[in-house]
Structures are given as C-alpha cells and as structure tokens.
C-alpha cells in the first residue's frame, strides 16, 4: 500500500507550509489526482486520516479532483483523449501521456 508513504509525504508538506503560514488547524485539503497515477483515492484518504490523528490535520476533509488522462501526439502535438485509435489529426500512434498521472496539493484551508 504505497498510499501510506504518499500520505506521510503529503502530511509533512502540509504541516510545514501550515506552520510557515501560522495555521494551527487544517480543516480542508484540496488535491488533484490523475487517474493514471496508480493512487487509489480511498486508500490515500484512509491513510491520511490515520496518520493525521493528534496532528493539525486531524479531522480535515479531503476533496479530490480526479484528472482524466490526455495523450500528446509525438508527431503533430495534438492532444488526444484516448490512445486506442491513434492521433485523429495525423494518424500517428506515437502518443505519450501528457496528463493524468499527477498528484498535486491544490490548496488547504485552516485557522
């Protein structure tokens, strides 16, 4: 369950930033997770909840925006939603993942 180590890293980042901003209690966390990231949002939320006990993030709600994958044609640069049929613009199958594998802390709120 690699979500545990990811949750630990997210917690460390949020705690450090909250401390810098003078936030004593984090109430809401907004994340962006790509569907191709290999991260199970439910597992990440559970791990974060467990690790947050007794910390400034305890009880914080986590809002997750799932990002659909987009592929980029290596030949013409067209953005393609699915690699199954190749590029609709030039027919190339030289597609690479342009988005959909990210994990980002968008924001967090607290007092």
Explain how this protein is built.
This protein is α+β, with helices and mostly antiparallel strands and 111 residues long. The chain has a single domain (3-110), classed as hypothetical protein PF0899 fold (2-Layer Sandwich), CATH 3.30.2320. The protein contains two helices and six strands. It has helices at 3-21, 41-52, and strands at residues 26-34, 61-67, 70-73, 79-80, 95-99, 103-110. β1, α2 and β2 form a beta-alpha-beta unit. α1 (3-21) crosses α2. It is elongated, with a radius of gyration of 18 Å. The protein starts with a helix and ends with a strand.
Q: Could you tell me the number of beta strands?
A: 6
| Domains (count) | 1
Give the low-confidence spans. Answer: none
- SSE series: HEHEEEEE
Q: Give the structural class.
A: alpha+beta
Distance between the termini: 32 Å
| Global outline | elongated
How many helix segments? Answer: 2
CATH architecture label: 2-Layer Sandwich
Task: Write down the CATH topology.
Answer: hypothetical protein PF0899 fold
How would a textbook summarize the main sheet?
Answer: 3 strands, mixed
- Report the top-level CATH class: Alpha Beta
**Compute the gyration radius: what is it?**
18 Å
Average pLDDT: 96
Tell me the β content: 25-35%
